[in-house]
């Protein structure tokens, strides 16, 4: 079912103090009134803040923020790996289940620090669900409505959105119904421009990344394109072709865009990909390879603790250097054998990947 997956409000630094909480609440109330006027119903509502100097400095602010905003609102604040304070990150993650964060690394030293804290020390103190809310970014920061790998780089007040539209892409490619795909995206952009005009808040753009949700499966679409299971020869070409399709839509419709705008393969969010991981047909090493052509080739994937997280992160840093574009990683280390099922809050059953 095609819909607006996420509507994000980009909050500038000037608003990121306790003294300005009332102003944030007023802005959000005004936006939500405009959503009704413009007939916009997002699946999720999100706030994106600028880069934090460290987690200690934001803990009190988040306590106050979550006390005054709607309980279903998701919040992202991210930090440089060099500024990581593991104790405060643990506290925040424990207290606020709607809090998401990304940690950026651009060198081996930073990777070492994050691997030995977030994926080692932190793993002793939290349940595995916390890892669904933490990402690593390699390269420059990306501003996108997709969580957790985002931050408000522009440092301005603005609006952005992401979509769920796999079904429409499927119908366009398999059944020739391209007009329905174009009409939906154009209609969404028009409605978001309406919200922008109504609220007086700039519309920063759409992230047209093709992302799954359960039976709305990107892996299923890839399998139709190659007439075989994902992981078979032709998979990388199919992902590349879908990326070119996204690029073509942006150019054809003159879409104001922001973020990644690429195929996403989050394992726990894609029923078919999840099944292929369970079968062992798609292995962890395959997903690392796909990250060369897929921004989130390592996304929402449970891995056995026998895998060296540091080496995985170094590989992703290398992928960034090869692509010369930012890439993200969201992995879930678990103390289970490959092929074992695990239950994740909000996502259901997923499977530990085979190396």
UniProtKB/TrEMBL annotation:
<protein>
    <submittedName>
        <fullName>DUF711 family protein</fullName>
    </submittedName>
</protein>
<dbReference type="Pfam" id="PF05167">
    <property type="entry name" value="DUF711"/>
</dbReference>
<dbReference type="InterPro" id="IPR007841">
    <property type="entry name" value="UPF0210"/>
</dbReference>
């Amino acid at each position: 079912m095609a819909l607006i997956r996420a509507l994000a409000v980009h909050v500038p630094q000037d608003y990121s103090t306790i003294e300005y909480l009332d102003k944030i609440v007023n802005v959000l109330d005004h936006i939500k009134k405009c959503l009704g006027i413009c007939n916009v119903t997002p699946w999720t509502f999100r706030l994106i803040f600028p880069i934090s100097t460290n987690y200690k400095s934001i803990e009190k602010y988040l306590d106050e923020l979550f006390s005054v905003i709607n309980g279903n609102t998701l919040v992202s604040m991210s930090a440089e790996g060099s500024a990581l304070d593991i104790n405060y990150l643990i506290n925040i993650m424990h207290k606020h289940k709607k809090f998401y964060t990304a940690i950026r690394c651009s060198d081996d030293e930073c990777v070492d620090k994050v691997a030995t804290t977030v994926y080692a020390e932190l793993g002793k103190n939290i349940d595995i669900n916390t890892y669904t809310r933490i990402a690593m970014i390699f390269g420059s920061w990306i501003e996108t409505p997709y969580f957790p790998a985002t931050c408000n780089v522009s440092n301005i007040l603005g609006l952005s959105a992401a979509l769920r539209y796999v079904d429409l892409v499927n119908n366009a490619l398999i059944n020739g119904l391209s007009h329905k795909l174009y009409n939906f995206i154009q209609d969404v952009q028009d409605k978001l421009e309406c919200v922008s005009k109504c609220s007086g808040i700039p519309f920063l753009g759409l992230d047209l990344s093709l992302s799954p949700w359960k039976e709305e499966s990107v892996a299923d679409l890839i399998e139709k394109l190659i007439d075989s299971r994902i992981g078979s020869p032709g998979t990388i070409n199919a992902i590349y072709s879908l990326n070119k399709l996204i690029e073509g839509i942006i150019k054809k419709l003159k879409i104001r865009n922001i973020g990644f705008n690429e195929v996403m393969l989050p394992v726990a969010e894609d029923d078919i990909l999840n099944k292929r991981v369970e079968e062992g047909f798609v292995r962890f090493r395959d997903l690392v390879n796909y990250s060369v052509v897929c921004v989130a080739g390592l996304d929402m994937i449970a891995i056995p603790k026998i895998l060296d997280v540091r080496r995985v992160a170094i590989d992703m840093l290398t992928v960034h250097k090869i692509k010369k574009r930012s890439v993200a990683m969201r992995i879930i280390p678990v103390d289970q054998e490959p092929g074992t099922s695990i239950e994740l809050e909000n996502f259901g059953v997923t499977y530990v990947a085979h190396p």
